[in-house]
Amino acid sequence: MNSSTVVKTSFKQQMLKAREVAIIQTVNRLLAEKGFEAMTVDEVAAQVGIAKASLYKHFSSKEDLAAAAMVLVMRRAQEFIQSQPAQATPLEKLRAVVRWTLQVKLAGDMPSLPSQNSTLRATLIANKDYMDGLMDVSDRLGEWIEAAQAEGALNPALPAIAILYTFFARACDPVLEFLKMGGLYQDEQIVDFVLSTCFEGLNAR
Length: 205
Prior knowledge:
Largest sheet: none
Number of strands: 0
Strand content: under 5%
């Protein structure tokens, strides 16, 4: 086949792809609103507007649905990380990634998954796209953390892995929702508060 040949996608394939995207977006929103345990496959099908049997043509289980939503978020994270300017310092890049994570969560686009669920955990571990994305994100952030420590911008006495997990934990930080429910602060103020406690701590300066 000539490299310039355009491979056309059939109308049926386009429709199936569009429906799959709609399913994943719905799952992502429901996971953010309700969490994995409360979300049901029936609810997903109803909100997408398709029969449950049609949904199962795309995803074989509730765990597969959640994994697809996590792959979507992981790809978005990879794209954001790759977009960071080369001239930015490691600390500036890390702050930008954490800020992005907080903004995505406040916008209701961050899936909320249980900390312990054997079937879901097994599904995520078996999902190559998810694991490859997770390793890529972890490696990139890990490099920036170690560089920031070497520059004295982050505490060098802390294990880099502990800092990495602290950043990952912001994706499920309940403080964001609590502050938003109070109605006293705008979203960007809330993001600034949490970002400050994450990077500057609670001690008076």
